[in-house]
Amino acid sequence: MFFVASKVLSVLINPMVWIIGLILMGEFAKKNSLQKIGRIGGAILLIIFTSPILSNLALKKLEWPPKGIDEVPLIETAVVLGGMVTFQDFTDQLQLNGNVERIEEAINLYHEKIISTIILSGGSGSVIDPNLKEAKALEAFITKRGVKSKRLLLEVNSRNTFENAVNTSKLLDSLGMADQPIMLITSAFHMNRAVRCFQKQGVNIIPFPVDFKHASFDWSPSWLIPNAAAMTTWEIVIREGVGILVYKITGYA
């Protein structure tokens, strides 16, 4: 139930939905006061959510601080959270999205002998088709890049971050690795929620954020020009902020 509700909520917290809703209210509301609220509110939100400066500042605030390789101890195992595959029914090709740096960086750490075992945690994020297992879909992608099969463990039942933590914790217990420090690899914007979930399950984690999406500020005038990319950035910030809040309320993190 929570999984389905989270999918519905992800639509409702989309800033474009808010803007369109206000614009429609401004056009079709019967009361003049509501029309005014819709028009002014829609305009204000449009300015805010298309601002590169504001969206970048918000994302920078959300992202976990970077960690250099020299700061990372030698660790036996790293768990990599899913969210990298976009399943398309019109092709058998593996479609990777913008979060693919999660597994790419894990493979790099493996070859640099920082870690020796990779746990990939990711099941189906689809309400319609629960048989789409992301970790399984990525198996060949990982082994073709030199990770030995015996050093790759798949956790294929998790549908969200909470289940990533719960199922990984159970897997570690079954392998007698519950007391070992585990490197946690996920996107920097997602690390805050992930850390809370894994700590809640008693996993001894060392965060290693990757996939930084905020940009360094410069004096380019492009920062002052509204663009659609800022809207996408705000979607990430709002989704994660709401996710952290909901997880706190439900006791998941």
Structure description:
The protein has 253 residues and is an alpha/beta fold. The protein has two domains: 88 residues, no CATH class; 142 residues, 3-Layer(aba) Sandwich (Rossmann fold). The chain contains nine helices and five strands, in the order H-H-H-H-E-H-E-H-E-H-E-H-E-H. Helix 2 packs antiparallel against helix 3 and helix 4 runs parallel beside helix 9. The longest helix is centred in the C-terminal third of the chain and has 23 residues. It is globular.
Write the layout of secondary structure elements.
Elements: H1 2-12, H2 15-28, H3 32-49, H4 52-62, E1 77-81, H5 101-111, E2 117-121, H6 134-143, E3 152-155, H7 161-174, E4 182-187, H8 191-200, E5 205-210, H9 228-250
Parallel strand pairs: 1-2, 1-4, 2-3, 4-5
